[in-house]
Design a protein that fits this description.
heterodimer, A: five-stranded mixed beta barrel, B: alpha/beta, 44% helix, elongated
């Protein structure tokens, strides 16, 4: 009996030791972490763009739902559907919509959403971390310092200008209908919405 | 019979004495050894922003039931190391830390970690993502992107400016500068005439601004990496008779800056929230000491742009309710 108990205890100890010696993670997550080890913002952003953009687009919030949600209990809606980086009142969303271009100038494209909300899509310069933070592709914990983390935005913003907006820029004009999936930032202490800046991950001109 | 009775009595006395001793050790509100201690180490207390950070952290730690002691590193990495040596040998349970140098301070945090003392960085980060339990930092880059956009709008994309930087060893200096330049550098008619550090110090900034104005007679604006330097720059501008001609931009959200914006002496600042950072750090330390180990390594705190249009919503280092 004593011998059996010893064998059982030894087996349990062995199984526990084995369990804590290994862990599993998906290959794609591992590959992503390997990208981050030697920091190259272009590589990191390109990887996410290639492997995660489709999923981001698929889960974009329809425009009507977005505006309806913010008209109700905006804070609860933002906490459920939006993303926030750290501590603050600004929430990031990825929204999908169709709209008619109301006007275009050399810097921006202008739209009206939800009947009365003015929206702007920048065509020449994209600033801020909006596209990065709304995507939720990047966790600040994975970067040695915030300068590296901010470098992602610079590259992502440039990529959006060059690959999403530039190819269509000559076709943007007043009256043209577009469909887009875009990052948008909302300060829940600054409602109702009057103006939005949209940074598109995907945009197409409708017939 | 008598001996038996005495033996039983002695045993009973010993038993009750043991019970009393055990019950005093079992807990209850009164600790025999006193409260746990938390150290609050601040880069410098010669700047009101850091005084608010340090005092708030200390107050919150005390409110949570700890003894808290404030240490001033006087912007000196060696002084900071001395403090850590003291902290590690004096029974402190946690450190709420505002580093002097993003690289130089790493060794102190690692030493604390090795000694089993958790460190929570406030406002300034260290260039090591594993040493501290958590780093609660202002989103300086985004704050200065917003400031840069306001700057461009103010000048309609044309003008000459100078930049006064903070401490070069502080990542905040470069996050703010890069955020600002990420916008402004896209406007070739906005020309930076000079860029120099004044170490976040008001007096140094005054001297730097004086020499910049001597070298360049056509400055339209100055962007300063913090409000203390903005105040110094403004003093120099005022003394030179150029108040109103050279526009001043700062960062922090100090009382001086808020007043200066209200009075038309300054154009804008980025409001940081040192009280939020300090309280969060103290709360994290408390959670850690109670057994929680689930912390985000980096916790950005949003920065808000303060301009003449919205300055009424803000007080020193905080938004008014």
């Amino acid at each position: 009996m004593r011998k059996s108990l010893k064998i059982i205890l030894a087996l349990v100890a062995f199984i526990l030791a084995l369990y804590f010696s290994f862990y599993t993670e998906s290959l794609s997550e591992r590959q992503l972490k390997e990208q981050f080890k030697e920091f190259n913002p272009a590589q990191v952003v390109d990887y996410c763009w290639e492997h995660k953009l489709e999923d981001l687009v698929r889960h974009a919030i329809p425009c009507e739902e977005f505006f309806a949600g913010l008209q109700g209990d905006a804070k609860s809606y933002a906490e459920r559907q939006g993303k926030v980086l750290g501590i603050g009142s600004n929430y990031f969303f990825v929204m999908q919509a169709q709209a008619e271009i109301s006007s275009v100038d050399e810097h921006n494209l202008y739209l009206i959403l939800n009947r009365d909300v003015k929206a702007t899509i920048p065509l020449v310069n994209i600033f801020s971390n909006l596209a990065r933070d709304a995507s939720a592709w990047f966790n600040p914990d994975d970067f040695q310092n915030t300068m590296d983390f901010n470098a992602l935005s610079s590259y992502l913003n440039k990529k959006i200008l060059q690959e999403v907006l530039a190819p269509l820029s000559e076709r943007f004009s007043s009256g043209v209908r577009i469909e887009f999936v875009a990052a948008v930032e909302v300060n829940i202490n600054d409602l109702p919405l009057k103006e939005l800046v949209l940074i598109p991950y995907k945009i197409k001109i409708l017939g | 019979m008598k001996n038996n009775f005495l033996a039983i009595l002695l045993a009973a006395v010993v038993f009750f004495a043991l019970c009393l001793g055990l019950s005093s050790c079992r807990g209850g509100k009164k600790k025999v050894k006193g409260k746990d201690k938390i150290a609050v180490v601040i880069s410098t207390l010669n700047n009101p922003w850091f005084v608010v950070l340090g005092e708030t952290a200390k107050e919150k730690a005390i409110e949570l039931g700890y003894d808290a002691v404030l240490f001033d590193s006087q912007n000196n990495p060696s002084k900071e190391t001395e403090h850590f040596d003291n902290i590690l040998s004096s029974g402190y349970k946690a450190v709420l830390f505002n580093p002097t140098d993003a690289n130089g301070s790493v060794v102190n945090v690692k030493a604390a970690k090795k000694a089993g003392i958790p460190v929570f960085c406030m406002d300034r980060e260290i260039n090591d993502s594993e040493a501290a339990v958590s780093q609660i930092l202002s989103d300086n880059f985004s704050g200065c992107v917003a400031l840069g956009q306001y700057f461009v709008k103010k000048f309609d994309g044309k003008g000459n400016y100078v930049e006064i930087l903070g401490l070069v060893g502080d990542n905040n200096t470069w996050n703010r500068s890069k955020g600002f330049h990420s916008v402004v550098d896209n406007y070739p008619q906005l020309v930076m005439l000079a860029q120099q550090t004044a170490d976040f110090d008001q007096n140094k900034a005054m001297e730097v601004m004086e020499s910049m104005m001597q070298a360049h007679s056509n400055i339209d604006a100055v962007f300063c990496g913090n409000d203390a330097m903005a105040m110094g720059a403004y003093q120099a501008i005022l003394a030179a008779g150029k108040a109103g001609r050279i526009l001043v931009f700062g960062f922090d959200g100090s009382q001086d800056a808020i007043n200066a914006i209200k009075e038309g002496k300054m154009e804008a600042t980025g409001m940081q929230f040192p009280k939020t950072m300090a309280r969060t750090a103290a709360e994290f330390a408390d959670r850690y000491l109670k057994g929680d180990r689930n912390f985000q390594k980096k916790v950005p705190v949003a920065v808000e742009l303060v301009t003449p249009e919205n300055v009424h919503k803000y007080g020193a280092f905080e938004k008014l309710e």
